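User: Sequence recovery, please. Input:
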């Protein structure tokens, strides 16, 4: 569902990256319009064992009011390990 993503932007901490999508994505539940309501940190563990953090967007659907997180393709949903 969440397939096309803009490049990761480095913040002041070299191990924390912010993820932003370039496209408008509909709600996966009802196809409604999603608006950004905040962000959260998400830890990621590489296959080498190194870890870093991503700041991912929290999105709320204007129709069904559910909250979704904008995950890049390098993450496995509900897991901390990087997808290979």
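Assistant: Recovered sequence (84 residues):
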């Amino acid at each position: 569902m969440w397939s096309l993503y803009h490049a990761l932007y480095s913040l002041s901490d070299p191990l924390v990256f912010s993820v932003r999508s370039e496209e408008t994505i509909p709600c996966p539940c009802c196809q409604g319009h999603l608006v950004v309501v905040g962000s959260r940190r998400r830890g990621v563990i590489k296959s080498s064992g190194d870890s870093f953090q991503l700041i991912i967007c929290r999105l709320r659907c204007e129709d069904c009011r559910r909250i979704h997180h904008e995950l890049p393709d390098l993450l496995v949903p509900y897991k901390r390990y990087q997808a290979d």
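The CA atoms of residues 13 and 74 lie 20 Å apart.
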